[in-house]
Amino acid sequence: MSVQDFAFAAEVAARRRWGATAALAALVVLLTLLSLGTGPVRLSPLAVTEVLFGGGSDVAQVIVREIRLPRTILAVAIGSILGLSGAALQGLLRNPLASPSLFGAPQSAAFGAVLVIAFGLADVRSYALPVVAIIAAFGSVFALLAIAGRNAGLLILILAGLAISSFAGAATALVMNLSSNPFVVLEIAFWLLGSLEDRSFVHVALALPFIAAGAAILLSQASAFRALTLGEEAAQSLGVDVGRLRLLVITGVALGVGGAVAVTGTIGFIGLVAPHLMRPVIGHDPARLLVPSALAGAALLLVADIAVRIIPSTSDIKVGVLTSIIGVPFFLYLIMRERRALGGGVA
User: Fold this and answer.
1) Alpha helices in 220-318 (DSSP H)
2) How far is CA 83 from CA 56, 205, 291, 300, in A?
3) For the chain, how big is the Rg over CA atoms in Å?
4) Which residue stretches, if any, does this entry annotate as coiled coil (predicted)?
5) Please, how many CA atoms are within 13 Å of residue 93, restricted to the half-sphere of its CB?
6) Is residue 13 a part of any domain in this protein?
């Protein structure tokens, strides 16, 4: 291939990536309008847009601005940080099965939040809740890297993540068991299922600063992720401090996931699915995959949240339950694909 042909192919690939990212951003905007219009009172995207620009009836303004807008903002922000965290962890560990939920970050964050709720140390509207959740999430990811080691294989990573997740789940159950207030236990049980229902701008104010800080940290390391694809030694020769990179990624994931879990409970598998959906379109460069994965995560959570509102049921379906139902078969498919790839490599 000549230099001109190579440059032309690179330009075509770049246009394809930009086009896919722009289309995904437009999809998120459309889903946002659909989310604001979906509920017991249906509103068209045109009516929602009118309300957002100061028009519409008083009833429509209350429904959109006071009830649905906080929920939709949280869906976009939390879906984005979960997709971004998944892409960042996959880039850091160079493993396509890496995700916050697989390695116990949401479960550990939930344990920290449940701890302070159950013992009355803070209520659900206190900034202490996301702070404790972030500390717990930070500890889980740090423990994973400490237990599995730098060059851990897929099996070790999964086993270490399973151990951390199981421990966090058992600790959460123990806290609920020791709580003397049955109403608190019931509230925690429903909260752990993961939901965006009945969220207000107070919850947005609680979560958004931590999510934004985590996203900024992860996005700032894009070039380091690209260098890391060559291996740790090659990345270090290019000036990347791998130890500092690992600490920054842990901090970013902990801030984002901890802030998200503190207001919605555990919502799994978004961080695993989003990067895989984007990789065939964007490519395998982890630096270029970050923003599309964030947009894909936002779109996935918006779709899931819209779905739980329109699926006929006698009680409200929790969005965390729906994402797990969809995510588990996808995860099993990825494991089967990895097994076939390893089998082909051995053969």
Assistant:
1) 222-228, 232-237, 242-264, 270-282, 286-310
2) 34, 21, 9, 9
3) 21
4) none
5) 27
6) no
Q: Which of these, 157, 165, 151, lies nearest to 105 by C-alpha position?
A: 165
Q: Which range of residues forms the domain containing residue 209?
A: 68-346
pLDDT, tens digit only, all 347 positions of the chain:
565 655 555 566 678 788 889 999 999 999 999 999 998 888 888 889 898 888 878 888 999 999 999 999 999 999 999 999 999 988 888 878 788 877 788 888 888 888 888 877 766 667 777 888 888 888 887 787 777 765 556 567 778 878 888 898 899 888 888 877 787 787 788 778 888 988 889 889 888 999 999 999 999 999 999 888 888 888 888 888 888 888 888 889 888 988 898 888 888 889 988 998 898 888 888 889 999 999 999 999 999 999 999 887 777 788 888 888 888 888 788 778 767 766 654 43
- Tokens standing for 166? 């199981």
pTM: 0.87
In a domain, 44, yes or no: no
Report the C-alpha gap between 243 and 218 in whole angstroms. 15
- The tokens for 20 are 């896919």
- Confirm whether 6 is domain-assigned: no
Kindly report the CATH number assigned to the domain that includes residue 241: 1.10.3470.10
Length of the chain: 347
